[in-house]
Specification:
The chain is an alpha+beta fold. The protein has one domain: 3-Layer(aba) Sandwich (Aminopeptidase). Helices cover 18% and strands 31% of the residues. It contains 4 helices and 9 strands. A 7-stranded mixed β-sheet has the order 3-4-5-6-7-9-8. A two-stranded antiparallel sheet has the order 1-2. The radius of gyration is 17 Å and the shape is globular.
Length: 229
């Protein structure tokens, strides 16, 4: 059974999909790499789990963002493994298995540390999730790490930004005040997205990883959620 859709349904451009007693807000923005504007609708109606429900109409009206289910794990792992040979998105050097991530997936909590997927015509094409910082030690309860992975077929189209934007918007409900992003210092795509969304570089650990024979550094960027309001 599919997970809960994140956000409100968006139909044709210009049509508002209202929530009972709430006036949605409309924002126009250019989708990176596509050269045209879309109309995005944001509402405040929330489900029992506290998540707004809307359909994503970024560059494909058939795409949705929803909570991940166990059935999505193979698709998530396929996207993750697809990113390994590029040497930019992960420190893993060999493909991982679905079985090795069963326990990992079971740790996600829709109310505190969710995992969402982007689905395009029934296929998982991206995911975004939060993980607790420093093994979830209590003093860091309000701090989480955000990770985003996209299928190659859907990179460079603005989907990564949209996934991060939506998760950032939900951080107050999730109890997250400090959002961290870890990325290799040669990953310019992540750097650009983070800068656009307001992340500030907090640390640069130079040459601490060796990825396919090349020394790489790790950048730690932080977004103070309370400063956004």
């Amino acid at each position: 059974m599919p997970g809960e859709v994140i956000g409100m349904p968006v139909r044709d451009e210009g049509e508002r999909c209202g929530a009972v007693g709430v006036e949605p807000q409309t924002q126009r923005r250019e989708v990176e790499g596509l050269g045209f504007e879309i109309e995005r609708h944001w509402g405040e109606r929330r489900s029992e789990s506290g998540i707004c429900t809307r359909k994503l109409s970024a560059y494909d009206a058939a795409m949705i963002i929803r909570g991940a289910t166990r059935d999505d794990l193979p698709g998530i792992i396929e996207i993750y493994n697809e990113s390994i040979p590029g040497g930019q998105a992960t420190a893993d050097l060999e493909p991982i298995t679905v079985a090795s991530r069963e326990a990992w997936f079971g740790e996600f909590d829709p109310k505190r540390r969710p995992c969402w997927v982007a689905e395009d015509e029934g296929e998982v094409v991206g995911c975004v999730y939060l993980r607790s910082f420093y093994a979830g030690r209590p003093a860091y309860d309000a701090t989480a790490e955000i990770s985003t992975y996209l299928a190659k077929s859907h990179q460079g189209k603005g989907l990564g930004t949209i996934l991060k934007e939506k998760m950032i918007a939900e951080c107050p409900r999730l109890g997250v005040k400090n959002l961290l992003s870890f990325y290799f210092d040669h990953n310019e795509a992540s750097r650009r997205i983070n800068q656009k969304l307001g992340f500030q570089e907090a640390a640069h650990l130079t040459e601490i990883a060796e990825v396919f024979g090349k020394k790489r550094g790790l950048v730690i960027a932080i977004l103070r959620i309370e400063e956004l309001s």
